Amino acid sequence: MQVHGDYVVMPPREASGAAPWALRDAPVALVGREEQEAELARLLAPRSDARIIVVAGLAGVGKSALALTVAQRALTEGHFAGGVLFVELLGYSTADMETAVGVEQALVKLLGQLGVADGDLPTSHDGRLARYRSELAERERAGKRVLVVVDDAADVRQVRDLVPPGGDAHRMLVTSRDRLLDYNFSARLLTLSELPPDPAKALIATRLRASLGPDRAAAEPTALTEIGQHCGGLPLALTVAAAVLVLDPGLPLRKLADQLAEARHRLERLSPPDRSGLPTGVQAAFDVSYARLPAEQARMFRALSQHPGVHCTTAVAVALAHTEGDEIPEWSAETLAAVREVLVGLANTGLLTEQPLGAGRWRMHSLVRLYATQRAQELDAERVAAGGRMFAALIHLAGLANARLDAQPGQPGPEPFTASSSAADWFEAEAETLMWAARTADQAGLPDVVQRLARHLGLYLHQRGRFDAQDALYRLALDVARRTGDWQAEATVLNRLGMKLSSAEQRAEVEQAHRDLAARLRRGTDTTATARERGSWADQMWRSGHAEEAEAALKEALQTCRQEDDPRTEIDLLDVYATLLIEQARHDEAIAARERAVGVARSMSDYWLAHTWEELADTLSLAGRGEAAVVVYESALALFREDGPVRRVATALGGLADALRALGRHEEAVRTYQDCMAAHREAHEPYAEGITAVQVGSLLNKQDRPKEALPFLERARDLLGDVEDQRLLGTILEELSKALSMCGQYKDAEAALLAADEIYAELGNEDRRAKLARVLDLLRATPGAEARRPGPWVRLRRRPQRS
User: Fold this and answer.
1) How many C-alpha atoms does 536 have within 13 Å on its Cβ side?
2) Model confidence over 257-289: pLDDT tens digits?
3) Alpha helices in 721-802 (DSSP H)
4) Run of H or E including 415
5) What is the mean pLDDT of residues 231-244?
6) How buried is residue 764: exposed, middle or buried, by Cβ count under 10 Å (0-12/13-18/19+)?
7) What is the enclosing helix (H) or strand (E) of 114?
């Protein structure tokens, strides 16, 4: 028989009471859903406690295919002796709920499948519902479980009355784009997402193989991969792409891949018109979902297309939702909750995904984003306003998040960053968007915004060890400063670049930039300059190699500073002066400069006193006065713990641990390094925590305590396994190999060295590889090395470098 255009298989009933089989055919092969198949089969099994299961997800994600496949398998395995009922509600076959299959129509179909003749149907709705429930109750008493499959439901109202009555014998399996969450409809939810790359390719290849033979897909594997990527792994889009290739057997896969690569035409290519000229495929599926959105959700859906990143946070979505007056909204708890409610509504329709749940990070499928962009372009004024609000909010939120990360522990923060963890999470989600904002600010002629974002985002990128991104950000800020003639901003950015660069070529480049800036400043020295300006000039003189001239300028700047009564600037200048003296090995004079800074800081806050004490302790340690350094570090720590951000506690602990290690007080050093790791963890600084873990592991290795070293080195590997500085990862692997070999885990030690060798090969470091080769030979020659089996550590796999 045929129901609303879909053929339904109904084998003839051999006798009264025969089990109905009303499912339509499942796909020949279900690709890439093994995990979901197993979970759904478990939920349909007799001992499962799930009476109602809803398979939900974006339009075209393959919900019906999964449900039909698993339902038919459950039937053939004998789990439903009472048979299977099937009804398609067409909830999303139209944008209008009024034309969907209602409860009344559904009951008629289900009663017919249960063997109730048309002449025996009760005339009233209540009567038909009672008869439906009675038929199912009778089968339950007879021990015959029934599965009711309800496809394409759009609303809980369509399915609530169709739920099988009674105990836990019968099951209902529902597919819907909506999660069908309701206070009086309790169901187990199974949400489908798009297919990973390999299954996406396999789905297209399977369709091509079935129609055109095996050579069609195998001939152009690279193009096949690209088609899967452009389809975003969405089964409907993949099926349409396969159909395009089947209908035009002469069309090269490369040609289709190139067509889909053009984002502005992608949806059109994946939405071929039907015979009447109306779009089908992806566009039509999204049209229905969009048309059913309430006005507030539809506006948010359009606005989210303006966000250029992978994830949009709830905090930024607040700005997109804000339409009243000022561009910067209030991030109150009430506003955040209200906007989250709108976002959750979109997520319930499948048009948005929160990843992970509860994180406040909202992701659109790539094809959905293209569709949302189309809808936004239809209302251009709304689109432009939303983009402006988002841009302003990103800059404002970056400042708030940076201030939260630099705040004292326990100090309450403003919404939306009441805790430092929320600020760190926000930066993690929006880092790429902030890079976009910096480039956009440059294009818009907003140099101050570029410098602010470089300051706020630069700290976060450093904390995560994302030095390539930090380098790109600082170089943008440097270019902007030069173009606008802001030499002070130029000097600040050059100093930041100089502190992070590691290669000789990069250092030489920045040193030359310092020399160029210094040459310009020497020609234009202003006798009326402030102390801070004079100090900046002096700093550039020193960094460009003019130490004597720099020292003289610093002394003049310090004298001007005292006249201006500016203790904050005086501390900064004394810091530059002390650093210059240290570079010349004039440690006693450097210590005197640091002590003078301590004296100035006593008239300021405890934070500044702690800061100058830490700098003094660093200098004492460099001068070989370790015992004195330890005392001063401890004083700085006491104040930082009372009045300072956790990251400053961590840096002071690191300095103290280094000083203790240099003094040979190794047990105290290990304990202090551990405290330092905990502080970095609390400050959300995984890169610094990983570096400290390497230091502890290295120290314990040198003391022949490999079993104690292993946990620290493994922690370092986990934290720094995808750092951009691959030389650092090579060092970690070497230290880890030492500890493993000393513990007799020779195969694991060999695996670590081979991984390190792979890194050095990529870096072209042949000297390091030659040393590793000698160590490997010694390791393999160790008695008993061949007999040891690899332990669990060899789970290590090289992670791809960040771009």
Assistant:
1) 19
2) 999 999 989 999 999 887 766 668 899 999 999
3) 726-742, 746-763, 766-780
4) none
5) 95
6) exposed
7) none
